[in-house]
Each structure stands twice: as structure tokens, then as C-alpha cells.
Amino acid sequence: MTEWTRYDERHPQHTVVGDLRVYPRLHSPQLGNKRDVLVWLPAGYETSTQRYPVLYMHDGQNVFDAKTSYAGEWCADETMTALASEGIEAILVGLPNAGAQRRVEYSPYDYQAGKQQIIGKGELYTRFIVETVKPLIDTSFRTRTDGAATGTVGSSMGGLIALYGILTRPEVFGLCGAFSTAYWFGEDALLKEIHRRASGAGRVYLDVGTREGDTIANLKIAAQDFNMLYRDGVRDLLKALTERGYALGRNLMYVEDEGALHNEEAWARRLPDALRFLLDDLRLR
Predict the structure, then answer these.
(1) Any residues with CB less than 8 A from the CB of 233 and at least 6 apart, and which?
(2) Which of these, 25, 89, 164, 194, has the minimum number of CB atoms within 10 Å of its CB?
(3) How many domains, the chain?
């Protein structure tokens, strides 16, 4: 039987702060593949009986360790370590992406790639988290299992699949961190999903940098100002969320980061305030 191991036993050279565990090569019956599951535990976990909120974070190889990252580190471990002094503590689950299959798994919608029609597997990936990963986490660690204390967090296409998660599984995910969301897959299907399903339930953090387009212009998503295009697309998501019951300052936080690019450095910089907002009602008193 596979067991949890300490991260530093498998990765002697790393930049991780705190207690990070690994469940190697968890099989996904939904997707037919395997990946490591990373779990970061709060500093007081071993000496307390506390049950903790859980955040499921996409692109897990970029979340904790600069040595495994392909584009920079979110520094989620350092951030949560610092936030503990404010009473903000949570278990973080890092789910590494599937490499070349990342776009396919993170899109719940079919989309065009050149002349090829791609069948999105985002629904299957969401089922993998809900049906396979979450039960493993909840039986292995002292978690809060309720939706109000369970979140999904990601950037770009990770933001897309995070929003899809809270929209389609509100009973599972009551918290959503959607950084620089790739909103355009499936011809605005995410926007339509919000209008169809959103009910103002849970808490949503949404953001965008004003220079996102400088990073992704090579994707040729439109022949115009990519920075404005990206910002306006996320603004459309914001407008739809407010029309469907979310309220800024109550259960919706929106940030436009002036001059910010589409990269891990920007997301790491915005992460502390995002987590403060998402976990505010779950602070340890």
C-alpha cells in the first residue's frame, strides 16, 4: 500500500519551508494517469487536535518548491507560515499538472487549437479531485471536510478550472482563488457557466494584471491590444459574478494589479491578501 512520505526524503535539494508530505503516483481512474499529491501541513499540526481548512492548488509543482517549478514558485509555504501569526492556518494540497496534457485537463470545455478540435477533460479532472483526491486527504489528515472550509486555487487555466469547481460543485468547494483566469476557452463558456450556475454562494477571489497580455500575446487569441483584452475579459467575469449574487467586500474580492505580468512572481505577490480574504472567517481564535 502506498504511504505518505516526507518531501525532503524524495527531494533532498528543495526550497520548501515547513512540513510537506508526498503521496507518490496517485492513480486517477477518471483520467487514466498518475501524479504525486503534495500536502503542506501547518506548523502546529503535529501538536494539536485542530481540524484545518483545505485548499486544493493547481500546478502543484510551482506551489512550494522553486527546484521543481518550471516557471517560478508561488511561495505558498512561506506565505502560510507568515499568516499563522494572524490566526490564518490551512492545509494546502498541491496537485502537479500533467505536463503536455495541462490545457486539456484544466479546460472543462472543448476548444480549437489551430485546426485541431480539442476535447476538454476539465470535468474529469474535477471529478478526480472530488472523488479520489479529497477522500484521500480527508482520511489521511485532520481536515474540515465541509464546503465552507474547502477551496480550489489556481492561475491562468488553473483559475479557469478553479472557478469551474465552485460553480459546478458548490457543495464541495466554498472557496475559490482565481488568479489571471484564462477566460476565453470554449468561446466564453466560463462566462455562460457563471450566468447559468452562480448563486452568490461561498467566497471568490478574482484578479488580473494590467500587463498579462505582454506574456501571452504569442497565443494569438485576438488581433488587438492583448493587455486590454485580458483585463476586459476578467472584468466580464467580475460583472457576471456580481450580477449573479456575489458582492464586493462581502464574498467577492477583485484586484487589478498595475503593471503585473502573467507569471508566478505576480501570483505569489498577490497570494497573501487572497488567502486573508478567503480564510478570514476560518481564522483560529
Answers:
(1) 183, 184
(2) 25
(3) 1
Cα(278)–Cα(203) distance, rounded to whole angstroms?
6
In sequence order, what E strands does 81-214 have? Answer: 91-95, 111-113, 116-118, 150-155, 175-179, 203-209
The residue-averaged pLDDT of 20-28 equals 98
Residue 223 predicted with pLDDT over 70: no
Q: Which amino acid is at 257?
A: D
8 A C-beta contact, residue 215 and residue 262: yes
39 neighbors 93 (Cβ within 8 angstroms) = yes
Q: Decide which of 196 and 70 is more confident.
A: 196
**CB-CB contact of 149 with 88 (8 Å):** no
User: DSSP secondary-structure letter at 110?
Assistant: -
CATH number at residue 51: 3.40.50.1820
274: containing domain: 5-282
Q: Does pTM top 0.85 for this prediction?
A: yes
SS3 205: strand
